[in-house]
Amino acid sequence: MRWPGFIAAPIAIVSPSALATVYLSVEQAQQAIFPGASFTAAPVSLSDEERRAIEKRSQVSVRSARQQAWRVSSGGWFFVDQVIGKHELITYALGVGIDGRVRGIEILEYRENYGGEVRYASWRGQFVGKTAADPVKLEQDIRNISGATLSCRHVTEGVRRLLALHETVLAGR
Amino acid sequence: MFMKRSVFVCALACAPWSAHAQTIEQKVDALQQEVERLKAEVARTRTEPAESATSVFGYGEFNYNRFRDDARTSRADLRRFVLGFGHRFDDRLSFNSELEIEHAIASADDHGEIEMEQAYLNYRFSDAVNVKGGLFLIPLGILNVTHEPPTYYGVERNDVETRIIPTTWRELGFGVHGLLAERFKYDAGVTTGFNAAKLDDPSVGIRNAHQEGQLADAKDLSIYGALNYQVPGLLAGGGVFTGDTGQNGQSNALLKGVAARLTLWDVHAKYSVAGWDLQALYAQGRLGDADRVNAVTSTAATPFAAPRALKGWYGQAAYHVYRKGDIDIAPFVRLERFEIRQQEDAAAGLLQDPKNLERVRTIGVNVWLHPQVVVKSDMQRYSEDHTRDRFNIGLGYMF
Fold first, then answer.
1. Fewer CB within 10 Å, N- or C-terminus of chain A?
2. CA separation (Å) from B377 to A4, B153, B330, B362?
3. pLDDT tens for residues B68-79?
4. Nearest Cα to Cα of residue B325 among A1, A160, A127, A81
5. H or E element in which residue B314 lies
6. Side-chain half-sphere exposure of B312, counting CA atoms within 13 A
7. Interface test with A, best of B1, B34, B47 (most A CBs within 10 A)
8. Which H or E run includes B396?
9. Nearest Cα residue to A70 out of B44, B31, B49, B45
10. Using CA atoms, how far apart are residues A161 and A54, in angstroms rounded to an integer?
11. Which residues have CB under 8 Å from B324's CB, separation 6+?
């Protein structure tokens, strides 16, 4: 069946995954965190044992056995991950240096009307230098932004999970 | 899925040429890079949780109030059960709503209510400029905008943000809101306002004159504006709301020609540092033509239902004494003062009710079992009206 253009066109505009506001592409986030580096995709597949180890270390549940990751030419790892804000997904990127310290975090896609304060550089900057040995907990070593609590909390948990993944699974690779 | 597949096909088809490869080796290199990129893309689609444009959320609280004085009835109540529904039509246009059931059962014979707390459409031009229309919360104070039980201290909402700022306060209208310069949040608009004809209980200030989006008298509209400064750990700001409440006598013909302008404003701050949560708020309001409204709405039981002026403040301090995993325990104290100034008629023996010039002390503890689930307990002491003294236990959640 062929649909007339005036019906098909609006449907195409609202087709899946067009629903988020995209702030940065993966490539832009890579250059923002590791300027000048090149990146090799190295998605990580986690065994059940590794997932449990990450959960134990981070106290955050690992919902997926696969993690998007890139090796950085200058050393270190770059991750793209998703967490739920209040009730919508937030896509963010995390860069971890060869020393296991956070190099930077960027918000790639955000979908909610409120809570967008997680994009503030002053908030994201708190993660720089953190390692898996730090608490990385909201209202402890990461300060909250009032009115954006759930988004702040869930991004913080995501970072803690990725740092645990980096330490328990990738650090030796 | 369709889009992702088309990206895949296009990438395979276009990649070698877009790289302007000169030799077969270069072509193979470009192709290899593209395969790496696609591997990552495939991994990403596998790790992404299923995404829905419609979301359901909610919050609620179960409260127990045990009064010291038998003149008041000690009660347990499913105070609120709220379900929220949101929908994204596209990346700019969305809908948000909260449907609330108060006191568990709503029928002609019961005390419960079913009400819409919010229902509005939001169009996002950018982070800095959003336009909303419908029934939405007025951004005065701290509690009115963020009122889920796990987000505040104490079983009951504080008195100042109940009697002076009538939380949960929403109006029908249009607003513009957004984030500026990575530290400011603003919200301003035009909405329905209060209806002076509905004033009937001075102890709750102007609360009962709010119209809650129900066939609201809208001859007189109101305007509001709020600005907050936000950096990690600190929120500081204020808001103002003003508009006439006479409504051209639509509900009570005797109010025709009475403006009865109501202006309410507040300043507030919230600061978290080294395990402490500190919070303070000051709110003030004035109702013009209060005497003319009273002349019309007075009854034998409540001769002066319209307050002339309102003000109140509170200071609150909490300290997180224990945090492990999701468990978080924080005792708190709060000191409040509210003043609802009434019209007086000394000759008739009608004087200011001292119970409306009250000081409240609250001491208690919040125990979070999870960041979104809280058990609360506190004691409250009222300086003027001791029959309000009580012990409270509450359970609250949000998701």
1. N
2. 63, 9, 11, 10
3. 999 899 999 999
4. A160
5. strand B309-319
6. 27
7. B47
8. strand B390-398
9. B44
10. 7
11. none
In the predicted model, is pLDDT for residue A5 greater than 60? no
First to last CA, chain B: 29
CA–CA separation, A35 and B66 (whole Å) = 62
Tell me, what's the pLDDT at B23? 80
pTM of the full structure: 0.85
Alpha-carbon separation of residue B310 from A156, B194, B287, B398 (angstroms): 41, 15, 8, 32
Distance CA B225, CA A93 (A): 35
B328 touches B223 (CB < 8 A): no
Residue B195's pLDDT band (cuts 50, 70, 90): very high
Q: Which of A18, A82, A87 sits opposite B57 (nearest CB)?
A: A87
A145: which chain B residues are within 8 Å (Cβ-Cβ)? 230-232, 235
Q: Rounded distance, CA B222 to CA B173, Å?
A: 9
CA distances from B343 to B121, B292, B337 (A): 41, 11, 20
Give yes or no for residue B362 having a pLDDT over 60: yes
Q: Residue B303's CB: how many other CB atoms inside 10 A?
A: 15
Residue with the two structure tokens 């919040």 = B366
Q: What is chain A's length?
A: 173
Can you tell me the distance from the alpha carbon of B217 to that of B175, in angstroms, rounded to the nearest whole number?
19
- In angstroms, what separates the C-alpha of A43 from chain B's closest C-alpha? 6
| A19 pLDDT higher than 70 | no
> How many residue contacts between A and B have a Cβ separation below 8 Å?
119
Q: Decide which of A16 and B174 is more confident.
A: B174
Amino acid A21: pLDDT: 82
Among the partner-chain residues A82, A147, A149, the one whose CB lies closest to the CB of B48 is A82
pLDDT per residue as tens digits for the range A53-89: 999 999 999 999 999 999 999 999 999 999 998 888 9
CA dist., res. B62 & res. B82, Å (int): 12
Closest CA to B121 of B135, B109, B110, B108: B135
The 8-class DSSP code of residue A62 comes to -
Q: Which residues of A touch B51 (CB under 8 A)?
A: 16-17, 19, 89
Residue pair B103/B77 in contact by the 8 Å Cβ criterion: yes
Residue with the bigger pLDDT between B37 and B327: it is B327
Q: List the structure tokens of A141.
A: 């070593």
**For residue A135, is pLDDT > 70?**
yes
A chain contacts of residue B88, beta-carbon cutoff 8 Å: 19, 88, 111
Tokens of B276: 């402490």
ipTM: 0.81
Selected residue of A86, A123, A146, A150 to mutate for chain B interface (largest B Cβ count, 10 A): A146
The two three-digit tokens of residue B313, written as one number = 């403040």
Q: For chain B, give percent helix, strand, coil, nearest 5.
A: 20, 45, 30
